[in-house]
Write a structure and sequence with these properties.
Transcription Regulator spoIIAA; 2 domains; 9 strands
Amino acid sequence: MASPLNSSTQTGRSPWKLSAYLPFTDWLLHYRRRDFPGDLLAGAIVATMLVPQAMAYAQLAGLPAQVGLYASILPLGLYGLLGTSRALAVGPVAIVSLLVASGIGPLAAPGSSEYLALALILALLAGLIQLGMGLVRLGFLVNFLSHSVISGFTSAAALIIGVSQLRHLLGVQVASADSFVGQLIVLGQALGSTNLLTLGIGTVSLGLLLFFKRGLSPRLQRWGLSPDTSQLLSKGGPLVVVVISTLLVWSLGLDTQAGVRTVGAVPSGLPPLTTPALNLAQWQALLPAALTISFVGFMESIAVAKSLASKRRQRIDPNQELIGLGMANLGAAFTGGYPVTGGFSRSVVNFAAGANTGLASIITAALVLAVVLFFTPLFFYLPQAALASIILVAVTGLIDTDTPRRIWRYSRADGFSLFATFGAVLAAGVEAGLFLGIGVSLILYLWRTSRPHIAIVGRLGDSEHFRNVLRHPVTTAPGLLMVRVDESLYFANTRYLEEYLNGIVADHPDVNNLVLVCSGINFIDANALETLEHLQETLAAAGVELYLSEVKGPVFDQLQRVGWIDKLGKDHLFLSSHAAMAALSKAG
């Protein structure tokens, strides 16, 4: 009987529909007039957030402010057309900006023409990787980034980002250091040359941003505004800080009179058409960073997209998301930008403001373009300390203190992988630390599954349920051992299984029948099959018959395909443990 849900229904993606490959055709061809006010409002609000954030994150990446703006135009439009999320707001984000800086920093001086050229190559590589993964449907690969690894990586990256911005907040020039501790040391040595006015601007900016983030919304609600309106207004903190700090520096001439560093001249006009260099050596040098950006960027995007889509009962296609993000990064590479991905805070605001379709992202892109065309001269006096404060407040939300405690209480192994990733990122850098964390996580998984939980089971009362003899008052049958394995069988745990079963048979000389309860086995690889074949022969030589019960369909098909079911004997297979005990008790 055919399953009522075919593959396309399960994923929400029919291969025969144009919208499966061009998602914008789904909403554009059937656009509803009532959706436009929400799209327009969301696009405008996100644009007010994105302009200051894009410039700040470009500074974090070691790039001129306009590069962040360029990365906020065509990439947003491309994702709005090709992405499956109606609310995801794509653009520059803190983590990816840090990865850009760490990937390019060892190869070129920040702000140099070579640095800019490498940023284009990095965007191109990230786009090609994500696009390729989406086309061949490799979205599942991000499952290798466990929650523990991501949590440790994100918290450590947030600390690195915060420390990297302290020089702008203090108004000092320091040499770049190879490590987190080294950066702290050089900052400590430069404290004596702190520009107090710059520090004052940064401190006041931090205070304003924190007030907008934590104190404004409750106060507005007490004044009678709705919670939704209050939340949206509280997101305007970065724009307010940019306006006030820029006016302050301009009106008092603090850039010339007090040495307050500003953004300086930001070119106006359309984003330039750029062509990333086809330099094999540079591509090879940037490949690790591009892989990291591709995986981390997708993880950040898909988590936000799925969370918001679930609130409206919408579907997200991970592979199409990879295609949309890949095209967005390709767009950045050819229009003077740098790698982008979906941002958490902007996406939440986009959703709350009423974004209904990808048109909201296109409206955001159009408004940012208008800023680039007509308003960039206004940013000349924007102090770098204000941008640093925007970044500092943004990354405070990335430092997670609750998850490590909860994970450590629940699983020491997962907690160890979290702290190992955290420490490795701080000590060895973001890329090396992340890959080390993934390696530790996989090693711990292999270690954990190499010693699977195995239990001797018996009947629970008069029921047909079987439970662990060490945990429940159960009954067993003379001469019969029923053993349940709670793990799939593969090369790493088959030796342990064989030693365990041979051991319990040796400890029970009266046993002549052994039933392997397979309810917890979802897969048996070739190594495990050889072990089962050898185990059957070993047990037979000792006068013990091997039986299987509760074998799952896919596992049964595999075993039957290679002929082992016939070799074992179909009378040695039982649909349930109850049937096995009933038959073998009578036989005994």
